[in-house]
Amino acid sequence: MAWSNQSVVTEFILRGLSSSWELQLFYFLFFSVVYAATVLGNLLIVLTVISEPRLHSPMYFLLGNLSFIDMSLASFATPKMIADFLSEYKAISFEGCITQIFFLHLLGGAEIVLLISMSFDRYVAICKPLRYLTIMSRRMCVGLVVLSWIVGIFHALSQLAFTVNLPFCGPNEVDSFFCDLPLVIKLACVDTYILGVFMISTSGMIALVCFILLVISYTIILVTVRQRSSGGSSKALSTCSAHFTVVTLFFGPCIFIYVWPFTNFPIDKVLSVFYTIFTPLLNPVIYTLRNKDVKDSMRKLSTSIFKSRKTDHTP
């Protein structure tokens, strides 16, 4: 590719989470289990939403798409990180590094728009219940999902527009388990202050502003819910609480990492692990524990799959 010829560095070395062989072996086993649980948990939600007719509503349609994004977010770097725990030479090509950065910002941008869409869905359902099905039509839901991917693509391309042309001619060690943009541009052979400001304005501040707007939105929703005392309002409160928990878990580490991209905090690596691995795992747990419809549908799907396999093995 044309842009790879502009850099002397052809690969980056990922320093990972630890240099201790014992810890790396523990991390290998631990994150293998976490990654498998993340993929299976989110995949189960996607299959449940698709197969269960009573979950064919706007809220669950958006939830299924969120699970797909979370499954992808957990997969853009985690499999390589797990493999690197058993390798002494933890290298990634320049192209591979740029690809990781692209997918991180693509999926992150798409998830931000999708979380805003889910907030809008709850607002309409609680504050304008009589117009809910009219406003949140199938066309609107599909449009919101398509918009989330479009925004994600444009956001990722905006982050890479200048990064791919930076000259990398010296240090090539990235102090993380994947190629995170703030850490990679620090290795460039030129002053990256302007690029850093650009990154803050398009990543950190966008995340911060969106989080504040979501907090305001859910506050309005919760105030409306608290003014009611019916069982339906109690269910709405539980659903919104789960949504707000997911929003906080997603935006918290993202804001901390990208609002101060050039300050090196020891907790940065922990937040990166949480943001890319644990948040996608916690999302299905939070939604299933707080939502009786999803739990019942998952139980029904699991029973159906088990019975089907048992029938197949019956002579």
Automatic annotation (TrEMBL):
Keywords: Cell membrane, Disulfide bond, G-protein coupled receptor, Membrane, Olfaction, Receptor, Sensory transduction, Transducer, Transmembrane, Transmembrane helix. Residues 41-287 form the G-protein coupled receptors family 1 profile domain. CDD domains: 7tmA_OR4-like (cd15226). This is Olfactory receptor. The chain crosses the membrane at residues 25-47, 59-78, 98-120, 141-162, 193-224, 236-260, 272-289. One of its GO terms (cellular component) is plasma membrane. One of its GO terms (molecular function) is olfactory receptor activity. It comes from the Eukaryota. It is found in: Cell membrane. It comes from Tupaia chinensis (Chinese tree shrew). Belongs to the G-protein coupled receptor 1 family. Gene3D superfamilies: Rhodopsin 7-helix transmembrane proteins. It is a multi-pass membrane protein.
